[in-house]
Amino acid sequence: MTGDDRALVDRFLDMMAAEAGASRNTIAAYRNDLAAAAAALPGGLGEAAMEELNGLAPIWSDVAASTLARRSAVLRRFYGFLHDEGIRPDDPSAALPRPRHQRPLPRILESQEVEAMFAAAEDRAASGQIDALRNLALLELLYGSGLRASELVTLPRRAIRPGQPFLILLGKGSKERLVPVSSRALEAVRRWLEAAPTDSPWLFPSGRKHLSRVRLFQIVRVLAADAGIAPDRVSPHVLRHAFATHLLAGGADLRALQELLGHASLSSTQIYTAVDAARLLDVYRHAHPRA
Asked: Model's pTM, two decimal places?
């Protein structure tokens, strides 16, 4: 990257940090994407003509569609900034590649598979073994309340109270939401707390800290294997997806589901309508004699 390009990129990223509130990680990702574009443009980044930007598509033909979409989005913002600031008289970003990026459907579990996981976890918890009691409580909250992994492992010890069928959660983006807690989850947490260490501020402690997301991921895979399910099909996030898709199939409306999941935008929640439609279409194709 030339010195002139580097100065333009620095100005753009300063604006993104100051006005758009971009995080340090976002700024670093933008810098990498702009450097990749500069390396592919023979005339430099700041002075690139539409013809040169149009030539990025074949140069980047081997990168993933998501990567290409992200790079194009960053470059559109960059050239829009140069135009708004009067650094360039034109905005050449219309020539940038616009890949069709289809959001993948979430992986899901059938309700029978989730029930099999619960049956196996309950059998192990019946022994009173401390890890088994903890694992059952984790499973109840992942599937029963639709918690994110980070939300679950950082729950304070007193977050869930006897007889209180909900908890107030500070979730993604520091937004509060009301999360339901089933009677089964309340009972599982009660049994866990009777056996759990009492000298930790966390509901699920591990040493001096709380349970890590990596450890939670490992526990969930073990629970899947115990139920005879391929472990690579299951993760904490897959159980959150199961919470959402099974609620939707049971008649929940999208707005309620959005609130329960803590999605900032309804568009994030609408993916589950596609999941349910895909499931129904699959049933039709396998069951209808003319399909």
From this structure: 0.58
